[in-house]
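S1.2 Input.
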Amino acid sequence: MARSDDPNDPKGLIREAYRIDGITRPECRSIFLDWALSLPDGRDQIQALTEMHAAYAAQDADHPMTQVLREGLDTAQTPRRRGGWRARQR
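S1.3 Output.
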């Protein structure tokens, strides 16, 4: 697979996912996981996701990868329990 000039997708994984005819959501999730693990150190994952989602959602809003990118953004921005007794639901 050819490298990409896009700093958000250096291996071109997301770009290639959009080119695969008939790709399914589970396949997109697998590609997304590979993308997340291969993102260079120091690159902000939320910023990269935001920029890629903005670019690709405008081109193909119904593509399974667009949905996976949206889920990734939603999950990344959801606040998590910080721990301790005050954070537990009562």
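S1.4 Remarks. The chain has one domain: 13-78.
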